[in-house]
């Protein structure tokens, strides 16, 4: 399993998130996925390799062409990490300070 | 609001995730947060600046020292992005290919 560092680093790039979004519609050939992106195929393939390294896509060979399929399981650890903070993100900064003050008082 | 790129890039580093975990217990002085990390204060402050730039921590001045407080709101967009993939991450690769095949058949 790829580390959370690798997975987060992989999805921190908009091109790589677009590739995942495309693959959420189904497996596709690399050249077809690459077509809309304003970059060389070599540049595009670097992004694909980062996604592979993070375990987020799998490459399978169909005839002459490589096909990519989404492998979303590593995203589960991202969800688990981020949902630990759910209690905090609806609080404004001023309320957050009060929240922590109350929490500290409670624990004393 | 910081972009999703900045937020994901910021949390892709284990030191920066540890800082957020520490701040989930309440605001703290930078020097106190830095103490357990095996790096220079200068190196540590670079991580803090990346978190600030991503909107994930806020710095407030208390006397001579800067205090950091968690600002978790940008994590909400991470959760929203990642939860879009929830339907996929419990499927194994072989079942995923079947899932897509069935989906494609349905849409034809």
Describe this structure in words.
- The structure is a homodimer.
- In chain A, a hairpin with a 2-residue loop joins strand 2 (about 55-60) and strand 3 (about 65-70).
- The longest helix of chain A is centred in the last third of the chain and has 14 residues, at about 95-105.
- Chain A has a three-stranded antiparallel β-sheet with strand order 1-3-2.
- Chain A is built from seven helices and three strands; from the N terminus they run H-H-E-H-H-E-E-H-H-H.
- By secondary structure, chain A is an alpha+beta fold.
- Chain A has helices at about 5-10, 15-25, 30-35, 40-55, 75-85, 85-90, 95-105; strands at about 30, 55-60, 65-70.
- The interface between A and B is large, with 40 and 40 residues.
Please state how the strands of the largest beta sheet of chain A are arranged side by side: 1-3-2
Q: What's the count of strands of chain A?
A: 3
Q: If you average the pLDDT of chain A, what whole number results?
A: 89
Strand percentage of chain A, roughly?
5-15%
- Principal-axes geometry of chain A comes out as elongated
Derived from helix and strand composition plus strand pairing, the structural class of chain A reads alpha+beta
Largest interface: A-B, 40 and 40 residues
From the N-terminal CA to the C-terminal CA of chain A, the straight-line distance is 41 Å
What's the SSE pattern of chain A? HHEHHEEHHH
Give the fraction of residues assigned to helices of chain A. Answer: 55-70%
Number of helices of chain A: 7
Q: What kind of oligomer do you see?
A: homodimer
Low-confidence sequence ranges of chain A: none
The radius of gyration over CA of chain A amounts to 19 Å
Largest sheet of chain A: 3 strands, antiparallel
């Amino acid at each position: 399993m790829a580390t959370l560092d690798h997975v987060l680093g992989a999805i921190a790039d908009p091109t790589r998130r677009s590739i995942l979004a495309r693959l959420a519609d189904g497996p596709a050939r690399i050249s077809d996925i690459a077509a809309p992106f304003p970059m060389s195929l070599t540049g595009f393939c670097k992004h694909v390799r980062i996604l592979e390294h993070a375990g987020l896509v799998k490459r399978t060979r169909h005839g002459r062409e490589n096909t990519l399929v989404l492998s979303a399981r590593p995203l589960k650890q991202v969800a688990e990490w981020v949902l630990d903070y759910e209690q905090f993100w609806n609080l404004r900064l001023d309320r957050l300070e009060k929240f922590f003050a109350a929490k500290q008082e409670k624990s004393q």
